[in-house]
């Protein structure tokens, strides 16, 4: 029997990236679409290992999952813990605020509380906003994105920083929130694999390369992220 491809993920509602897992539909969205394509390419069924955000990398280090396919920007800090495949996505970072807050640039964030997921490229960006007060979210949360939006709505924070793809469903006319500005950071997202599994890394990376070369990754991107530019030239 072919071994399943076990992928660690956060079980949360963050379309178009991913949806909550259900017995009937599994997970839906861009990342599950990438996972399905990978599974097809490798001839392996996909099994989701649903864990809190802070436990995704430890899950692959323990061997509870083969890889993390869930919002992992390729950073030096993470590369010290795990190895990464080539990117399957490239995103910029947006700053979401309450509608009418009068925040339009980084200079408007002086003295403001700005939320982002801890140990992420997003919180690293917040730390570059001079005078802003970083508010890390994530430890122990089952749905960190929902927690950050709730904090913004209740005025516990003044802004939320996340990758631009996360804010796509809110649109330009949401009654509660507006996108203050976007920083062109070109964050590369990859699939994270334990450092003691170079065979795993090579297998998954090669399969991802074939998906890019064949154009199947573009098809998945255009299905779920039609308003964002496909980041890989050629196919």
From TrEMBL:
UniProt domain Solute-binding protein family 3/N-terminal: residue ranges: 4-228
Pfam families on file: SBP_bac_3
SMART domains the UniProt entry points to: PBPb
Keywords assigned: Signal
Highest taxon above the source species: Bacteria
Name of the protein: ABC transporter, substrate-binding protein (Cluster 3, basic aa/glutamine/opines)
Organism: Mycolicibacterium hippocampi
């Amino acid at each position: 029997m072919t071994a399943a491809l076990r992928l660690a993920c956060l079980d949360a509602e963050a379309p178009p990236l991913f949806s909550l897992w259900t017995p009937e539909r599994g997970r839906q969205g861009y990342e599950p679409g990438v996972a399905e394509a990978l599974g097809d390419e490798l001839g392996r069924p996909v099994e989701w290992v649903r864990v809190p955000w802070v436990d995704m990398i430890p899950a692959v280090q323990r061997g509870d999952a083969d890889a993390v396919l869930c919002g992992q920007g390729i950073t030096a800090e993470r590369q010290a813990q795990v190895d990464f495949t080539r990117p399957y996505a490239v995103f910029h970072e947006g700053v979401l605020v309450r509608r009418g807050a009068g925040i339009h640039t980084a200079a408007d964030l002086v003295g403001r509380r700005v939320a982002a997921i801890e140990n992420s490229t997003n919180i690293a960006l917040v730390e570059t906003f001079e005078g802003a007060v970083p508010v890390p979210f994530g430890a122990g949360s089952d749905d960190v994105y929902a927690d950050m939006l709730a904090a913004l709505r209740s005025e516990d924070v003044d802004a939320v920083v996340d990758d631009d793809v996360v804010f796509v469903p809110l649109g330009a006319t949401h009654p509660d929130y507006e996108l203050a500005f976007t920083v062109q950071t070109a964050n590369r997202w990859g699939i994270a694999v334990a450092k003691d599994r170079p065979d795993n890394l090579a297998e998954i990376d090669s399969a991802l390369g074939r998906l890019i070369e064949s154009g199947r990754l573009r098809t998945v991107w255009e299905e779920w992220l039609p308003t964002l530019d496909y980041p890989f030239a050629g196919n």
